[in-house]
UniProtKB/TrEMBL annotation:
Transmembrane segments: none annotated. This is Stress-response A/B barrel domain-containing protein. Residues 4-108 form the Stress-response A/B barrel domain. It comes from the Eukaryota. SUPFAM superfamilies: Dimeric alpha+beta barrel. Pfam families: Dabb. It comes from Penicilliopsis zonata CBS 506.65. The lineage of its organism: Eukaryota, Fungi, Dikarya, Ascomycota, Pezizomycotina.
């Protein structure tokens, strides 16, 4: 298991087309290979899926992404300095619902 986990839940705009939704998903998954640190890929894995069961507190997300890093420092680099991630953000924000917050959380697992 990775040393640091970053979770993103998307709530897509209601008027987004299926093709645009898939483009956002594909673009997010492509970050695994586009994000480079010192010329090397540093994202260990990106997995995604769609809620199969809803709970009252699930923020009504449509898609969930789990990004695995070796360290908090790698996750910080991703958020603060990675150009590929920065280039992806406008597309993600444009696709996200303006009325739903989605979900973003990061943590270091305490058990493996």
């Amino acid at each position: 298991m990775a040393g640091y986990i970053h979770i993103v839940g998307f709530k897509f705009r209601e008027d987004i087309s299926d093709a645009d939704r898939q483009d956002v998903i594909d673009s997010f998954l492509a970050l695994k290979h586009k994000c480079l640190r010192d010329g090397k890929e540093y994202i260990l894995a990106i997995r995604h899926g769609f809620p199969q069961r809803t709970f009252p507190w699930h923020n009504d997300v449509d898609a969930v992404f789990v990004v695995e890093f070796a360290s908090k420092e790698d996750c910080d680099y991703y958020h603060q300095k990675d150009e590929a991630h920065a280039a992806f953000l406008p597309k993600a924000k444009a696709a996200n619902s303006p009325t739903a917050p989605g979900l973003v959380v990061a943590f270091a697992p305490v058990n493996n």
